[in-house]
């Protein structure tokens, strides 16, 4: 893996070079093994939290882990194009718009003992800006090359918050073109419902049951690109013990192994249905 500036990452994309890189400030990674019509994203996978913020933060490392999406990059890391955040969403949230990306409060609790100095705020926001510069360059290149693109926007969610039964997988579709892409959304839902996972007899998958696809990653791509479908795909955190901060590697592995087949199969069906 190379360490590259954002400008150099964009130049490599424009030249259609194959590479694996971490951004110069270590805020995100991008792997391109092959230029293809689908992308996997894990914007909340990261847990880094830079040292200068520690003493001012009221949330513990466990509080942050509980709200992050650990292992979501691992779910999709075998695919040819994977983009993932390295930093904790408590520093800045890649799935929120720039005006709301740097939190003052997080999940009902004040985040900082004292307001962030402007310099620290701007440093976090610059990382958010740079990530989306690369997203724009990447999707531009793929739409130019393939005509249509599908993005698998992988997340996880805390099921213990809910006082009712919630699905193992939720697809959020409220901000996509359901009239145009609805059939392929349903195909994705059905495919995910067929996952076979340890410790559960049935993998339920529903649309807009717990989350509705309101994230900025989806909105940014959807609003800037007419021919790219983003599938906001949320896994219930059955792959870890949320209360004791333990990851179950056998469940993570089962998800990764099956997505290794399911994602390319769905992406190919999408491409056949929607290519120009």
From TrEMBL:
Which InterPro entries would you find in this protein's record? N-FG_amidohydro
Superkingdom is Bacteria
Name this polypeptide is given:
N-formylglutamate amidohydrolase
């Amino acid at each position: 893996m190379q360490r590259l500036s954002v400008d150099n990452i964009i130049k490599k994309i424009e030249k259609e070079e194959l590479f694996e890189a971490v951004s110069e400030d270590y805020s995100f990674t991008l792997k391109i093994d092959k230029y293809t019509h689908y992308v996997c994203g894990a914007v909340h996978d990261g847990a880094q939290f830079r040292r200068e913020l520690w003493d001012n933060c009221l949330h513990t490392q466990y509080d942050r882990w509980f709200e992050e999406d650990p292992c979501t990059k691992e779910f999709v890391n075998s695919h040819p194009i994977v983009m993932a955040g390295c930093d904790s969403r408590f520093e800045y949230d890649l799935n929120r718009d720039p005006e709301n990306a740097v939190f003052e409060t997080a999940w009902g609790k004040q985040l900082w003992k004292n307001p962030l100095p402007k310099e620290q705020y701007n440093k976090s926001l610059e990382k958010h800006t740079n990530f989306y510069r690369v997203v724009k360059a990447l999707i531009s290149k793929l739409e130019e090359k393939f005509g249509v693109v599908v993005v698998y926007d992988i997340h996880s969610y805390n099921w213990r918050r809910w006082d009712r039964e919630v699905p193992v997988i939720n697809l959020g579709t409220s901000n996509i073109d359901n009239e145009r892409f609805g059939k392929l959304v349903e195909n994705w839902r059905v495919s995910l419902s067929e996952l076979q996972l340890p410790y559960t007899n049935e993998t339920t998958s529903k649309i807009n049951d717990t989350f509705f696809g309101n994230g900025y990653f989806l909105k940014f791509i959807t609003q800037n690109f007419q021919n790219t479908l983003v599938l906001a795909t949320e896994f219930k955190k059955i792959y870890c013990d949320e209360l004791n901060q333990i990851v179950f590697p056998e469940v993570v592995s089962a998800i990764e192994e099956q997505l290794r087949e399911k994602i390319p199969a769905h992406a190919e069906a999408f491409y056949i249905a929607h290519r120009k």
